[in-house]
Amino acid sequence: MLELFSVLLFISHHFAYAEYNELALDTSAEFIEDFYLKDLRRQLMTDEDTVLERCLSIYDPGEWVQFMLYTRESATVYEELFLGNLTSIEDSKFDKTKETKIVVHGWLSKVHMRFTRDIRKAFLEAKDCNVISVDWPSMTEYTIARFSVGSVAAKLSQFLSFLINEAGVDPQSIHLLGHSLGAHISGIAGRSLQNVTLPRITGFDPSGVFFSSKPEYRIDASDADFVDIIHTCGHWLGYYDPIGHVDFYPNGGLPIQPGCGFDLGYCSHCRSYLLYIETITSDEPGFLAAKCDSNSDFNSGKCCSDITQMGENADRKARGIYFLYTGDQSPYGLGNQSIPAQCWDQADTIS
Ligand SMILES: *[C@@H]1O[C@H](CO)[C@@H](O)[C@H](O)[C@H]1NC(C)=O
Ligand SMILES: *[C@@H]1O[C@H](CO)[C@@H](O)[C@H](O)[C@H]1NC(C)=O
Ligand SMILES: *[C@@H]1O[C@H](CO)[C@@H](O)[C@H](O)[C@H]1NC(C)=O
Asked: Which of 79, 159, 182, 238 could pair with 106 as two cysteines, CB 3.0-4.6 Å apart?
């Protein structure tokens, strides 16, 4: 475990330097040297407020957050929306009569990279909506990115308040979706809103590394009216314990996910959103799931009384822990084969 983690740290340093040279956006290269990372990790697990107080005067990742709007009319070139600048919204293709999907990437990612790019394409193909991609400085050593969650979430929360209170966007039209650290950013941003509860936040394999069990510092069921979580790399890069209203565990929710081969965790960690993306563009329920207390009971066909579907069309009244199988390559959805044959009679109730 420790060795694997060292490898990941090494990879992240590598990315941090590469990104530093290319974009000059993150201050990571010099910044890391100024940090007592070990101490920081310990504090992140126990007392995040002190970390923020201590670090934000040196480096505030929230200052680098960008909000990029994509619509069907501007599907390839984004329009940047600025917090506090109403003109930037009025002059853009943003249409408040449509649904707004807000997408937050995780560690070592950017809006032009796979998660944000592919989910945005799927949404715009499937529905005429606004997609706002949130970009934040994630090309840093993991601990720095982890520490950034609170401050990026605060910025996103301010932006959401701005959309709702000043641009007149109906909060009921907003859906937040985040991968990895982005899932925690989405959750914390949602819960920080005053007098507003968002209808839905979706977390794709929320990060498990250096997260305490305190719900105020991570995504949690109290962050929105409906919080759905997909776990695919539990006990490793992802958080294993159930933390939403509904928690889906494809193939048991653990690495290594089918088809990933030799996997340090990245493939399994990203599988969470690849499964979901399929459900955006398909009308078929590709991922049926059965409510069950354990994966072994699920496997033996003992849990058939409560079947629901995972993904964009999830039932917002679903509650609890659900298991399912997936394929090992795209398309991953198996339809009724995603639950044991004993449960197929029940599956007919899902359309
Ligand atoms: C607001 O955004 C527009 C672009 O959308 C820009 O032209 C303008 O300068 C911005 N205003 C301020 C005060 O930053
Ligand atoms: C939230 O509601 C309370 C009580 O109704 C009110 O005093 C406060 O101003 C509201 N805050 C915002 C940001 O609307
Ligand atoms: C399983 O799904 C297939 C394809 O959608 C369908 O033809 C078949 O009837 C289903 N089987 C059962 C037992 O529901």
From this structure: 182
Q: 82: Cβ below 6 Å to ligand 1?
A: yes
Asked whether residue 9 is domain-assigned, the answer is no
pTM, entire model = 0.88
Q: With a 6 A CB cut-off, is 76 part of the ligand 2 pocket?
A: no
pLDDT tens column, 283-332? 888 999 999 999 999 999 999 999 999 999 999 999 999 999 999 999 99
pLDDT digits (tens, 9 = 90+) for 143-202: 888 989 999 999 999 999 999 999 999 999 999 999 999 999 999 999 999 999 999 999
Sign of CA dihedral 236, 242, 247, 249: positive
In a domain, 236, yes or no: yes
**Residue showing tokens 């007592």:** 36
> Does residue 135 sit within a domain?
yes
Residue 167 token pair: 């641009």
Give the domain CATH number at 342. Answer: 3.40.50.1820
Which atom belonging to ligand 1 lies closest to the Cα atom of 88?
5
The domain in which residue 126 lies consists of 57-348
Give the span between the Cα atoms of 99 and 173, in whole angstroms: 5
Determine whether the shortest distance from the Cβ of 194 to ligand 2 is under 6 A. Answer: yes
Nearest-atom number in ligand 1 for the CA of 79 is 5
